[in-house]
Amino acid sequence: MSVKNLREKLNKIVSKEQSKWLDEAQWRLDNETSLELSQDVAMKILDRLEELGKSQKQLAKEMKVSAQYISKIVKGQQNITSETIEKFGRALGIKLVSANNTPSQNTGWRAAHETQSISIAGVGSYIMIDNYSYRLTATSKQNTQAKLIEGNSGTIIENCDSDCELVSAA
Amino acid sequence: MKIIAIFEPVENALLSVQYDDKELHEWKDLIDCWTNVHYLRTFFKKNERILNGEFYGGITVKDAVTRTLKEAKILEKTILELAKNGKSDKKETLQTIFIPLNNNEVKITQHQQTKAKLPNKKASWLRVYAIRISENLFVISGGGIKLTHWMDESDHLKIELEKLEITKKYLIDKDVLDEDDYETLEISL
Prior knowledge:
The structure holds two protein chains of two kinds. By secondary structure, chain A is of the alpha+beta class. Chain A has helices spanning 3-13, 21-30, 32-52, 56-63, 67-73, 82-92; strands spanning 109-112, 118-121, 126-129, 132-137, 147-150, 156-159, 164-166. Chain A has a four-stranded antiparallel beta sheet, with no helix packed on it. A three-stranded antiparallel beta sheet of chain A has the order 2-1-7, with no helix packed on it. Chain A starts with a helix and ends with a strand. By secondary structure, chain B is an alpha+beta fold. Classes of the chains: A alpha+beta, B alpha+beta. The A-B interface holds A 1-2, 6-7, 9-10, 12-15, 17, 19-22, 24-25, 28-29, 32, 35, 39, 42-43, 46-47, 71, 74-77 and B 5-10, 12, 15-16, 18, 25, 27-28, 31-32, 35-39, 41, 62, 65-66, 69, 73, 76-77, 80, 133-134, 137, 174-180.
């Protein structure tokens, strides 16, 4: 069978609907480091819940969040902010991340958005502003520029020279 | 179990079936499970007896989850690269990762049942099962975490054998085959 014939036959059975896997795979590659943190946190939350004999539903009630939110966090498939980590740590009475893998590091950028949301993150890490994931980038500690890059697309959507300042240099 | 759709995650290279009892196509579903900490932790807790057995020598659930997350990341990346590269580079096709399901098979045959696992990693336990249409064209029927020596020793892998058969039959019924490619290649052992 020629390649053309094979393609014609495939066209008859292949769905017209796009598989979203390619975009998702690329997103996972782009967010590799921050996803490792989310996975580590998810594992610790689940271990702690088991240790306390507590269900996700009970935790949701105590934290005044939905059970769906807890379920999302314990999958470890999305970026997680330092605020969320702290919130879960407080609710579970444990430290969920060690000093060397928290998003806040000695060398970091303070990014303030016009909505007054403020996050501190290490260069190359991800921050959440208004429910969007952004990556902070910079070429060196002398370079006081940082860029907000939309997590999913990698598109630079905002240069934030004026909104970012070097917190401290290691 | 019935196939209700066939998706094409990488055009002209990687296809994946969707069954009537699932919301996602198989490749997407596999990656979704293998990157889900809660799913993996539950799976390994259920199979803790095997992890504590002689073969795995007491690997902890936490280590098993970590290892799977790492393996899934590499496997996904490898399959993505091969599917893309295989369209132009005949040395780097999906066929380099998908090998015959039966270890005793030495010939590439039409609608062959195949498996993909991390190359050069004896200890890898993630498996992707697919039917081969041609050198860089595979239809994923399913996959799983293989902790036992034989597939029919695990209930969840027994189902994978059925899924391979269902997918093969579906493709034969739809007459999707590449006659020019039939038994023309051999795998070196």
